[in-house]
Design a protein that fits this description.
212 residues, alpha+beta
């Protein structure tokens, strides 16, 4: 049997090499597919997130109509025209880290919370400059002072409310006025009831209107 195998390799080496290469390539392809499928198992659902309940959102337009995420901001004149043409909610996203919180926490104005699935589980909405609401925070934190580090520096805020936790971010909500002071640029503009004037104002190639 061994002599037959040796003879086969000696006189039919081309067929042997071809079969070996086909087997090796097939094994490599199966291995790559398995690795790809394994990597997707831990990937969170990439469906609607912060603007799941928004009718239309206006975001900065990138190359080939790509959506530019924060810190990219909408041009100030586009924001002014859109807000003058109809109701609009300015959304700002910026770093807002607490000492005991998870890394990568994000700050927003409170008005933006209404367009996601955030809901108060304890306390109330922020109403003054020194008040915040913690996304996914413990109800025991309500009434306590928390140090928050933002692009404007580190400051103590009073926790007046907490919301349910959402998988895609760890949020800190400020009043809209405080968020504008911390991070003046508008990253996204939400149009609750878009008007024809706003559609015209968004045109011009520097903004992208997303709906649905």
């Amino acid at each position: 049997m061994i002599d037959i195998a040796k003879a086969t390799v000696r006189y039919r080496w081309a067929s042997f090499v071809g079969a070996f290469l086909a087997l090796a390539l097939g094994t490599a392809m199966i291995g790559m597919m398995a690795l790809t499928l394994t990597a997707t198992f831990g990937t969170p659902f990439s469906g609607p997130q912060r603007f799941a309940h928004a009718t239309e959102v206006v975001v900065p337009r990138g190359f080939a109509d790509a959506v530019l995420p924060p810190p990219a901001a909408l041009p100030a004149d586009v924001v002014a025209r859109l807000t003058a043409a109809g109701p609009a909610v300015a959304d700002r996203s910026f770093g807002a880290q607490t000492p005991d919180g998870p890394s990568g926490m994000t700050g927003h104005g409170w008005s933006a919370a209404a367009f996601a699935d955030y809901r108060l589980t304890a306390g109330r909405a922020p109403a003054a400059a020194g008040e915040i609401v913690l996304g996914g925070g413990s109800a025991a934190l309500v009434g306590h002072q928390v140090s928050v580090t933002t692009p404007a520096g580190t400051q103590d805020y009073q926790v007046v409310g907490v919301t349910n936790a959402l998988w895609f971010e760890d949020a800190v909500f400020f009043t809209d006025a405080e968020a504008a002071l911390i991070s003046p640029p508008v990253n996204t503009l939400v149009l609750p009831s878009p008007t024809a004037g706003q559609s015209a104002a968004a045109a011009g190639g520097r903004a992208l209107v997303l709906a649905g």
